[in-house]
Amino acid sequence: MTELREAAPSAGTDLLDERTRELADYCAAMTGRLRVIGQRLDRDPDAITEFLHEPQVRFPVQGMLPPQYRSAGEFPAPLVAASSTVLGQVVATEQVAYGDPNVILASPGRRSPAEWSRRSPTSSNGSATSAGWLPLPPTPSSP
After folding, report:
1. How many beta carbons lie within 10 A of that of residue 83, not counting itself?
2. CB of 97 within 8 A of CB of 50?
3. 102 burial via Cβ count (<10 Å: 0-12, 13-18, 19+)
């Protein structure tokens, strides 16, 4: 694999505020481990359950979650706050992509750690939900 960390910084990186630059550096430090995890997932996509406890898998999704579903105290609060902005998500996603973005795509959605090992979660009406997200509302019937 080509080593992208030696590439020139992205255009405009020098224009980021200090907190967003710290977010970029924090996420950039994850790339090596994300590559290792990604190689394992290339062989067995279901192996993601072996890595869900790792901070390199857990942090990138924190800013995408509503505050009540974020991991309180697990990660530096200013970095989680920075990753919850559109700019922060772009910066974090770019840095994660240097590692392996498929690790994040393979991760389950909004579920508690106790639920991560479950396969095919279901809602109260028995219908399967997608990656632990709330089920979609029923579609209106045709008249």
Report:
1. 27
2. no
3. middle
Contact criterion met (CB below 8 Å) for 116 and 108: yes
Which pLDDT does position 106 carry in this prediction?
82
Q: Which two tokens stand for residue 2?
A: 């080509």
End-to-end CA distance of the chain: 55
Mean of the pLDDT values across residues 94-103? 87
Residue pair 129/121 in contact by the 8 Å Cβ criterion = yes
Grouping H, G, I as helix, E, B as strand and the rest as coil, residue 71 is coil
Alpha carbon distance 69, 92 (integer Å): 19
Query: Cα dist. 44→64, 99, 106 in Å?
Result: 26, 18, 11
